[in-house]
User: Which sequence fits this backbone?
């Protein structure tokens, strides 16, 4: 990395922290610290919602996902606009009317303390671990691609977030997220423009995309129905709606963002704007990945994008064979590039022989694919614990090796901004739930506002420290990281079911919904352990199970008999 | 607790529902109103003079258009 890149990165990092501390001010009451004084306009609410959902891994993994698997991942987000409408119509006015600080306060109002505590507890576990991963994941990628010390990277990101989140609370989080969103947008657009300009002079973006399309990378919609296919139109519209409903309606990291709106109207507009913009935004990020795939049809990519794994295999007993495969892969890529150019020309001319050109290109591409598969099997043979997927490293590898000085620093600043925006919202929501649902409700009710703000700040530092420590040791946890990632999808359906029972099943009591939630959770875990059902459908299973079982249990519970009419 | 916005912890809990069923007497919190009549948003203008129902319709229509465009995109480049 050049000195210009370091300067850009340092300036962006220092600027984000300073801006957060400056804009956050000093809140003296819980309303100010936890909900930004409920004064945000819809634009800030919308950017805050989007920045909270999009972590660094979104901008690093999503292009890699399109590179490896095409654009069908966009279907994952198709339920989001529907969820935005439902949350706007149902949850927002309810939360505002009750003037809650957390989503879980509502559950005590509707059901009882144990239901509120159960959901708050599930949130703290799930989001606490996720906060660590939000910092760990980009740090791991940066350390692999750039050789940075992962512990130092974790410490820098974590400390920067804790400083302004503790100082200014929700106001600092929301205000800084607007700056971070600007940095992220600038970084992605700059990377895309650079990518297009690096295409061969005789190949336009459209030509390159046509080639990517022939390789199946531009298939955005799959209308087939399958419970085991992870991304289809129907899993996105049905399973995705339940997932996004749960995330936006019941996850405090999002609820807190729109409760900082100055009114129901401002919160709703922020959510609806997100509903209209999020899907095209994800499409755009995936298009960057598809363009990256197209770029590498005209310039040979490395056989594997994770340099640590390739270094490992080179120094192992498989090193000699790996070198042979690498040489064959380069030759195959050169042949594939020729075929890709022929295909681009044939498509452009509308040549009748385009069918032949497609077949020749696909044959060359298949040869490269076979060699890459062999390289991966050698990596696994050298180290059985090696990760066979390199999608997370594709985008950053391109940036570091192809972009000019200054732009590399800007894209790295984008990664830091995305990581900080998501983790600051997580820390802020963890602090609010810890204080409002645990400390103030269970441990020390009745203290002054100043005391709760102080405890909120302590909780922010505490959760920040926990996230940093978890991220520092996450690399030693191996498969547990994957388990933690799945953890969220295991609980969301059940939690959503509890909230929907509260909204719509007015006869259901706390005891019935509590028992239903326990059994529904066991059912979801059973699906995870015993079936091959894709995880998006867990949200449907958990939610519907809570609604059905709570209704059943309520009908079985003894009801108080009405008092007999008095006889005078 | 001095924060007046949060329901007092010791207060009796009342069921709250948005279910448009028959009204029950007493202090049960129910929301049978249209979102547009919500008191918290009634004092603010919705952009372009639209109703909430119309805005929700626009978001839903945008989704339909996006799916159609993505399908066309898929077909065009396949």
Assistant:
């Amino acid at each position: 990395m050049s000195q210009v890149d370091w300067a850009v990165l340092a300036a962006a990092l220092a600027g984000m922290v300073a801006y957060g501390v400056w804009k956050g001010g000093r809140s003296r009451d819980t309303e100010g610290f936890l909900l930004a004084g409920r004064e945000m306009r819809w634009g800030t609410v919308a950017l805050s919602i989007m920045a909270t959902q999009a972590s660094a891994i979104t901008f690093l993994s999503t292009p890699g996902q399109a590179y490896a698997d095409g654009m069908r991942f966009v279907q994952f987000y198709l339920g989001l606009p529907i969820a935005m409408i439902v949350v706007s119509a149902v949850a927002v006015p309810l939360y505002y009317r009750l003037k809650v600080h957390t989503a879980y306060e509502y559950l005590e109002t509707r059901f009882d303390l144990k239901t509120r505590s159960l959901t708050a507890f599930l949130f703290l576990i799930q989001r606490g671990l996720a906060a660590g991963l939000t910092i760990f994941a980009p740090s791991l990628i940066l350390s692999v691609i750039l050789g940075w010390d992962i512990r130092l990277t974790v410490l820098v990101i974590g400390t920067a977030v804790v400083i302004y989140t503790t100082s200014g609370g929700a106001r600092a989080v929301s205000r800084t997220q607007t700056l971070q969103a600007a940095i992220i947008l600038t970084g992605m657009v700059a990377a895309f423009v650079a990518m297009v300009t690096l295409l061969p002079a005789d190949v336009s973006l459209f030509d390159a995309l046509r080639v990517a399309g022939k390789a199946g990378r531009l298939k955005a919609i799959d209308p087939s129905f399958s419970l085991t296919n992870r991304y289809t139109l129907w899993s996105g519209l049905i399973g995705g709606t339940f997932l996004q409903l749960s995330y936006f309606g019941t996850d405090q990291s999002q609820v807190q963002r729109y409760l900082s709106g100055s009114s129901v109207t401002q919160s709703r507009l922020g959510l609806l704007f997100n509903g209209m913009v999020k899907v095209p935004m994800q499409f755009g990020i995936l298009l960057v990945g598809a363009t990256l795939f197209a770029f590498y049809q005209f310039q040979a990519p490395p056989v594997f994008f994770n340099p640590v794994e390739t270094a490992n295999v080179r120094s192992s007993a498989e090193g000699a064979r790996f070198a042979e495969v690498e040489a064959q892969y380069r030759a195959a890529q050169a042949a594939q590039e020729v075929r890709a150019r022929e295909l681009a020309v044939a498509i452009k001319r509308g040549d009748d022989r385009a069918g032949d050109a497609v077949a020749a290109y696909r044959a060359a591409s298949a040869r490269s694919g076979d060699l890459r598969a062999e390289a991966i099997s050698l990596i696994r043979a050298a180290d059985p614990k090696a990760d066979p997927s390199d999608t997370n490293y594709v985008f950053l590898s391109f940036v570091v090796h192809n972009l000019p000085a200054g732009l590399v620093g800007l894209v790295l600043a984008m990664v830091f901004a995305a990581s900080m925006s998501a983790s600051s919202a997580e820390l802020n929501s963890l602090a609010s739930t810890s204080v409002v649902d645990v400390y103030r409700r269970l441990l020390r009710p009745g203290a002054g506002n100043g005391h709760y703000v102080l405890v909120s700040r302590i909780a922010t530092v505490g959760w920040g420290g926990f996230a940093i420590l978890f991220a520092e040791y996450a690399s030693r946890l191996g498969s547990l990281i994957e388990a933690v990632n799945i953890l969220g999808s295991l609980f969301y359906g059940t939690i959503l079911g509890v909230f929907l029972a509260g909204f719509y099943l007015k006869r259901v009591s706390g005891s019935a919904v509590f028992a239903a939630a326990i059994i529904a959770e066991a059912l979801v875990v059973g699906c995870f352990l015993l079936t091959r059902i894709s995880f998006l459908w867990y949200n449907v299973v958990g939610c519907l199970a809570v609604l059905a079982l709570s209704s059943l249990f309520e009908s079985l519970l003894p009801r108080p008999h009405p008092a007999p009419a008095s006889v005078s | 607790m001095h924060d007046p916005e949060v329901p007092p912890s010791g207060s009796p809990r009342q069921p709250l529902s948005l279910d448009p069923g028959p009204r029950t007497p007493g202090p049960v919190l129910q929301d049978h109103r249209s979102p547009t009549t919500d008191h918290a948003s009634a004092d603010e203008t919705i952009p372009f003079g639209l109703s909430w129902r119309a805005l929700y319709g626009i978001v839903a229509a945008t989704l339909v258009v996006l799916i159609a465009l993505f399908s066309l995109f898929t077909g065009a480049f396949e």
